[in-house]
Design a protein that fits this description.
Chain A: Keywords: Membrane, Transmembrane, Transmembrane helix. The complex is a heterodimer of chains A (about 270) and B (about 450). Chain A is mainly α and about 270 residues long. Chain A has 12 helices and no strands. Chain A starts with a helix and ends with a helix. Chain B has about 450 residues and is an alpha/beta fold. Helices cover about 15% and strands about 35% of the residues of chain B.
């Protein structure tokens, strides 16, 4: 436990001394504030144009930020030799991985907290009507997105040999998960029988954190009916209070599985390396 | 016990006496009606049916504030007034009141119909009937008109209820017209039933100023050529107004909001509508603001679609005119498929960034509705999962070359003149306080864990 805390503390310290963290912080703040100002005439509540565009902004920016910061942090351990050094200490690989995850999560959540804090403050000063439940939903949505993509980042960081490789893989994963996703699925599902499309689409959504979180927020914003009759039951489930629990357990499952996977990779590297 | 006021003075006196009661009852919703009186308070000896049967044509009967038992059949031309305090309870499957004589007037009577399904509280099978200020609680239908022309149905309140000690039954429609032409339906309040106002085969009907909430369809009409649907307000229905199979209809000044619960919800649904005019309507916060299918040669003018998921959706709608409509803060302004040859001019699309070089308030570049998503989901509705996914917008834009075949606004407005209601949320400062707190905590964390050397 102390090992985990030590690693996490070191990670947080390195994170906040990393200029990348601040450039992403600035980027996130600038864009969210710009959106708020563009839409300052409209109220921010429910599923509408402004919440839709905020959703898109968050979906573009946060996964990219998370993948970069997370993956680079892990490859840096290998590149700079600190992992080789740590390997000689009596510190468990699992403690190391969990510590890294926790530390990075703290850094990213603080960045988001800063961005949303500024947004809430400015919207209060501008007099924009910002519905508080919508605000909290967006906060939770961003946190969930970051925590899920961080697991992907750990995978990328573990599998790539250096930062350049991590950068390339991060960008391509981001592109497929956020931008190319419908294109990819529509083209693949065009070849399967008609009745398979929906189940495959649902299964695919569970493995793409960006879509999973986006759909959860759309439903929670009250926009579930726009998804049409095919997903009526899903929407019903998520709208209930139990929906939050269901969603959180799916996220937790995601995170646990990934940490175990990453642990396997590093443990193998430690014994064979 | 019973009073007949044949004399003019007596009638005026009674009106004066009853008027405050009527006002009080109009101000308070239905549940304020008097509790059921026990059987001892029924007029001894004479039922409501006896009283009506004893009346001469042209009589006005003022009912004392009693509770009566239905069913009742009116076969002579009388005016029956309840002063808002007379209550008729019907537990049989027959209508509580059946009107068979022309020119009958019912005023300010509370009717409670304890049956569901196809049964109705009031059935009209005669012409020129006036139903005014009635408060109807029904398990089934409210008012049913069959082959009854030129009726006047105004200021009634109709509500669905579950009779005590019974399971919820099948709901009927609030006001249901079949083959009844030239009626006037105004200022009624209808809620919790199946369809609020259902019109079938009823031409030249006026539906004005009604308030329709928590229904399946607020207004549901078919084959009602030459009718007018104006100034109605609908909220929380599956669909506000469903208009189908009509020509020369006016849908104007209506407001339909918050229809999002159902996966088929719309503000206004137009199906097979021809040469009609749809103007000055406000559709706000619906799943789809205005949905138009298989409709042609209509004019849509000065409508405002505000904060809907989809502002307007067109499917196989061709040859319609769209002028000066405003599309504001919708998740997506418009979707169209197989809808070429519509004339769109001078509409305002707030998601569209126009360019106005000659500063005439009209964009010099056209606005085209992208048909890609709509076409995709019409092939397989499972793809609706991609609604407004960032990747979906990316993909649609790549097929921009296809836009020309869809609907195009040649001269979109740069700015909307009509001031659309913005609405407001309750400001309790929670967001601002949370903002302060988050900012404070994150800055402290950064300084404490990152900057300070420990």
């Amino acid at each position: 436990m102390t090992d985990i805390l030590q690693v996490a503390r070191r990670e947080v310290k390195m994170g906040f001394r990393n200029p990348w963290a601040y450039s992403f912080l600035a980027l996130f703040c600038t864009f969210s504030l710009s959106l708020l100002i563009i839409n300052s005439q409209n109220i921010v509540q429910g599923y509408s144009a402004i919440t839709g565009s905020m959703l898109s902004l968050v979906l573009y920016l946060l996964p990219l930020m998370t993948l970069f910061l997370g993956a680079f942090s892990l490859t840096a351990e290998k590149e700079e030799g600190s992992w080789q050094l740590l390997s000689t200490y009596p510190i468990g690989t699992l403690s190391f991985i969990i510590g890294k995850y926790t530390g990075l999560a703290v850094v990213l959540l603080v960045i988001i907290g800063f961005g949303y804090g500024l947004m809430g403050l400015i919207s209060g000063l501008l007099g924009t009507s910002f519905d508080s439940s919508t605000y909290f939903l967006f906060l939770a949505f961003s946190a969930g997105l970051v925590l899920l993509f961080l697991t992907l980042a750990l995978f990328i960081g573990s599998l790539s040999r250096n930062r350049w490789q991590a950068l390339t893989i991060s960008v391509s994963i981001w592109f497929f998960a956020v931008i190319g996703w419908p294109t990819l699925l529509i083209s693949i599902l065009g070849m399967v029988p008609y009745l398979w499309v929906k189940p495959l689409l649902v299964a695919a959504t569970f493995i793409n954190p960006a879509e999973l979180v986006r759909l959860f927020v759309v439903v929670k914003l009250g926009g579930g009916s726009v998804l049409g009759p095919e997903y009526f039951q899903w929407v019903e489930w998520i709208q209930r209070p139990n929906g939050n629990l269901l969603f959180m357990s799916v996220c937790l499952l995601w995170i646990l599985c990934s940490i175990v996977g990453v642990y396997k990779i590093w443990e193998r590297g430690r014994t064979h390396g | 016990m019973m009073k007949y006021s044949h004399s003019r003075a007596g009638r005026q006196f009674l009106v004066l006496l009853l008027f405050p009661l009527l006002v009080v009852d109009l101000l308070f919703p239905l549940y304020s009606q008097p509790a059921y009186a026990d059987s001892t308070s029924y007029p001894p000896g004479r039922s409501l049916q006896d009283i009506i049967d004893a009346a001469e044509p042209g009589d006005t009967i003022d009912l004392p504030p009693e509770t009566y038992q239905g069913p009742v059949v009116i076969r002579t031309r009388v005016t029956l007034r309840g002063g808002g305090r007379a209550t008729l309870i019907n537990t049989t499957v027959d209508p509580a009141i059946t009107i068979l004589a022309d020119g009958v007037t019912l005023q300010s009577i509370n009717v409670q119909h304890d049956q569901d399904g196809k049964t109705t509280a009031i059935q009209v099978k005669a012409n020129e009937v006036t139903l005014e200020g009635l408060a109807i609680h029904t398990g089934g239908y409210g008012i049913m008109l069959r082959d009854a022309d030129r009726a006047k149905i105004i200021h009634n309140r109709i509500r669905w209820f579950i009779p005590q000690g019974q399971p919820a039954g099948e709901r009927g429609n609030g006001i249901d017209l079949y083959n009844s032409h030239g009626s006037q339906i105004g200022n009624n309040e209808i809620s919790y039933l199946r369809d609020g106002i259902y019109l079938e085969n009823s031409r030249n009907t006026t539906v004005d100023g009604n308030k329709l909430t928590y229904l399946r369809y607020g207004i549901h009409c078919m084959y009602i050529n030459g009718s007018k649907i104006t100034n109605n307000v609908g909220e929380y229905n599956t669909t506000g107004a469903m208009v189908m199979g009509v020509t020369n209809v006016v849908v104007s000044g209506n407001s339909f909001a918050k229809q999002i619960r159902n996966v088929h919800s719309q503000g206004i649904l137009l199906y097979d509508v021809r040469t009609s005019s749809i103007t000055n309507n406000l559709v706000e916060g619906n799943r789809v603001g205005i949905y138009m299918e298989k409709s042609a040669e209509n004019e849509l003018r000065d409508n405002v679609a505000l904060r809907n998921f989809i502002g307007i959706q067109l499917s196989q709608a061709a040859g319609n005119q769209f002028h000066r409509n405003g599309f504001i803060a919708n998740v997506i302004d418009a979707e169209a498929v197989d809808s070429a040859e519509n004339v769109m001019n001078g509409n305002y699309w707030d998601s569209f960034q126009g360019m106005d070089v000659d500063r005439d308030g009209i964009s010099d570049i056209p606005y085209a509705i992208n048909p890609f998503y709509q076409r995709l989901i019409s092939r397989n509705s499972a793809y609706q999962l991609f609604f407004q996914s960032p990747g979906m917008n990316f993909l649609s834009d790549m097929f921009a070359g296809d836009k020309a075949s869809g609907s195009v606004d040649q001269a979109p407005l740069m700015k909307l003149d009509t001031k659309a209601p913005i609405g407001a949320v309750r400001k309790d400062g929670t967001v601002m306080v949370t903002g302060w707190l988050l900012l404070f905590v994150s800055v402290i964390t950064i300084i404490y864990l990152g900057v300070l050397r420990s």
